[in-house]
Amino acid sequence: MTCIEEAECRRLLFCPADNSCKLYQDGTGCIVKPNINAGCSCYKKNIGCDEDNNCTCPLGYYDCSDGYSRGIEYPKELLTTIQPVSSPEPFEVLCYLDYGGFTSILMRAEYCDFEEFNRTLAEYETGFGAVYLNRWIGFNHILAILNNPHSSFTLKVQLLDINWVSCENRYSNFEIGDKTTNYVLSLTADTANCGESITGTPNLNGRPFSTYDVDFTGVHECALNYGGGWWFDESTECSQSFLTGTIEYGSSSGVYYFWKDNWNGAHIKRIALKLIRYN
């Protein structure tokens, strides 16, 4: 049995030590860790057609909300392939096929391998990180998801601390401008169970996205000083929220990610930004 012969297979884990091979429907189990399966390799099935016209197709959803609306329900995180209306190619995202279907655009997990988020604007455009671990899917992919005619989107912010205390904020009318606007942020605060660290003071609504190489905060140089890209305000305070900082708690390299309102000083172990689409 090979991965290419199985329609549901998306990953293959090969371990030469015992010549074993495992197939996975998504990438949640196909992870190589030095203390568990050192020497093994995880392979991803190609999406497309070979020279003999043998084709492997994406799962066929515009986004995770589309998958849910077609009757696909799954109570856990699922790494899968989507192809939005305006995207020329399919790409992988982490889906939550429950409660309407959520597409993850940012995932941070302290227990996962470190991923550097102090990146250039070009890297924030294309995306980086392992999809199931510490991942920013990229403005190119986010804009493709948002570019769905006659649809509106809500952003969900989820935080979890080391004591397993969690909270959730929701922002309706979520939009991000294109490259010509410097990816300006636009949203409406609906629920603020975590406290309001985006549209509070300073208000990040209407702010462009700053990175250390393309910064819109003037003399404050927020992206450079904080060590990550964000919709910083052009002020001394920069922001009450910063979810792309270092995940190394107490690190002297970069600013630890934070959400100051209600969670000021909290040791956050997991962060997720997710989109749900409404027609």
UniProtKB/TrEMBL annotation:
Which intervals hold domain Fibrinogen C-terminal? 55-279
Instruction: Enumerate the SUPFAM superfamilies for this protein.
Output: Fibrinogen C-terminal domain-like
Q: Could you identify this protein by its name?
A: Fibrinogen C-terminal domain-containing protein
InterPro entries cross-referenced by the UniProt entry: Fibrinogen-like_C, Fibrinogen_a/b/g_C_1, Fibrinogen_a/b/g_C_dom, Fibrinogen_C-term_domain
Q: Which GO terms describe its cellular component?
A: extracellular space
Q: What SMART domains does the record point to?
A: FBG
Q: In which organism is this protein found? A: Lottia gigantea (Giant owl limpet)
Q: Which PROSITE patterns match?
A: FIBRINOGEN_C_2
